[in-house]
Amino acid sequence: MKAPRRVFRMMLVAFAGASLLAPLAARGGEVIDVGDRRELFIDGHLIERLDNARLTAHEPRYEGKVVMFDKPWEGKFSFYSTVIKDGATYRLYYRGLPKAEHDTGWENLCYAESDDGIHWRKPNLGVLEVKGVKKNNVIITNSEPGTHSFSPFLDAKPGVPDAQRFKALGLQRTPGNQDWCLAAFVSADGKHWTRFREEPVILNDTDHFAFDSQNVAFWSQSEEKYIAYFRTWKDGIRRISRATSDNFIRWSSSQLMEYRRNGEPAPIHHLYINQTHPYFRAPHIYIATAARFMPGRRVLTDAEAKAIGVNPNYFRDTSDSVLMTSRGGAIYDCTFMNALIRPGIGARNWVSRTNYAALNVVQTGPTEMSIYVNRDYAQSTAHLARYSLRLDGFGSARGPYEGGEVITKPLRFKGGRLSINYSTSAAGSVRIEIQDEAGNALPGYALADCREIIGDEIERAAAWKNGNDVGNLAGKPVRLRFVLRDADLYAFRFAE
Q1: What is the distance in angstroms between the CA of the first residue and the CA of the last residue of the chain?
Q2: What confidence score (pLDDT) does residue 148 get?
Q3: pLDDT in tens, 147-194
Q4: Cα three-residue angle 124-131-372, rounded to 5 degrees
Q5: Residues with Cβ < 8 Å from 297, sequence gap 6 or more?
Q6: What residues pair up with 351 in beta bridges, in sequence order?
Q7: Cα dist. 374→66, 239, 297 in Å?
């Protein structure tokens, strides 16, 4: 009886394989133009099918404390950080709040710099006098409307004037103190800021805005508009809305962001800050290292909170950082629901409003990018920590030792070669087949023609028996079939 069962199982496997391949030949449908863009395996946008492979999130590595909030004008409630890589200079902006209690009427916008994103200095700017000291790193004080939730960005819009190279949104009251709104600021050097216009630029158009967290904006190369993301309350839950603008002054009505996972509605959590920004190696993909806030989810006892010296009003909630992505429009993809960064060992980061990531992921080495996270909130040890990932390494398509496959939807590309960001074990490998739109291997690009790829590289050109030139296929609908054995595939790109 054993032999017939084995044969029957083999017949089932063969039948399953045939049924999986059949839809490729019959489907047709839209061809996705990837051009020469880098594409990351952090969502299912390009994936037709996964066979014994899966999308896997990768955990950032803790690299230690980088900035202590220990100046008299900073304090335990320092928060809402932004890191900008401006050429060879890394710029850090963050809120300083020196009061013993959380009083947002006493805020300072503080500034730090770095040459490598790892070692930071707080320059004595001499811009403002704070607490009787003019040698400080403060660039805006609470006496100026817009300090709260101030969130700057480096404007990537082509042709932007030098005087407006940096832009920002900040919170203020409308004339007459009727409601909260957002004001626009500009700067040539990122240190000296002026109003872009006196009137506010984004008003509360739904009666559900709060604006009292980081309100982020950027120029989108793919949408060719300024995009702003800000907090909205919906059914008692902190949600995110977005608006668009051609000129950073006149903005569209807001859209409530939806959360999707595998095309279906994703679980909804409180998102305190969204930190949405274009990924610097693939700016058509927006990365959101959002703060997932769990109100009332208390971990520490009174005695444990007292032992670490946390403000007694800030240990009855918990929070962590999560990863979402967007390719434009009013949808976040929530492929990975697990935390991007967990609170970690020890009591200090199981308090309220900690583990909030700074805005922007930036490159800090030839193969490395960094995420910065506010830690130890409401404590005398409050600081900014750094975490690292490999370039493009938020997630990957992973195949086990037994082997797995990823087959893409029909694509159209430009360029002459295909490069991948990948990692294998010593026994593992990556092989690539280029197919026609129906799923048939193209002559010269079949799996048997592909040279086995072994190793761990940020960029490696795929090659077949006749070399690595794929230029003759540019502009034509093709599918990519990646065969992964004990391997991770982080990204691919067609280029010259």
Answers
A1: 58
A2: 80
A3: 788 999 999 999 999 999 999 999 887 666 667 889 999 999 999 999
A4: 55
A5: 317, 318
A6: none
A7: 10, 21, 19
Contacts of 300 (CB under 8 A, 6+ apart): 308, 310, 315, 347, 350, 351
More confident residue, 52 or 143: 52
- Please give the Cα distance from 38 to 283 (Å, whole number): 9
Q: Is 117 left (phi over 0), alpha (psi -120 to 50) or beta?
A: left
Distance CA 347, CA 247 (A): 46
Tokens of 485: 């054995």
**Calpha distance 74→78 (Å, rounded):** 6
Check whether 17 has a pLDDT greater than 60. no
Q: What is the H or E stretch that residue 427 is in?
A: strand 417-435
Cα dihedral value 473, 475, 481, 482, nearest 10: 90
pLDDT for 177: 60
- Of residues 260, 236, 444, the one with CA closest to residue 335: 260
The pTM score is 0.92
How many angstroms separate the CA atoms of 292 and 321, rounded? 6
Q: Which of 217, 213, 239 is nearest to 227 (CA)?
A: 217
Q: Indicate the pLDDT class of residue 36, thresholds 50, 70 and 90.
A: very high
**Whole-angstrom distance, CA of residue 413 vs CA of residue 34:** 5
Window from 25-29, 76-80, 482-486 with minimum mean pLDDT? 25-29
Dist. CA 413–CA 411, nearest whole Å = 6
**Cα–Cα distance for residue pair 414/483, rounded to 1 Å:** 23
Q: Residue 202 belongs to what H/E stretch?
A: strand 202-203
Q: How far is residue 54's CA from residue 407's CA, in Å, rounded to a whole number?
A: 12
Angle, vertex CA 116, rays to CA 56 and CA 457, nearest 5: 40
Q: Do residues 151 and 216 lie in contact, with contact meaning Cβ atoms separated by under 8 Å?
A: yes
Amino acid at 488: D
| Residue 283 contacts residue 302 (beta carbons within 8 Å) | no
> Which two three-digit tokens encode residue 332?
């976040």
pLDDT, mean of residues 98-122: 87
CA separation for the pair 144, 85 (Å, rounded): 26
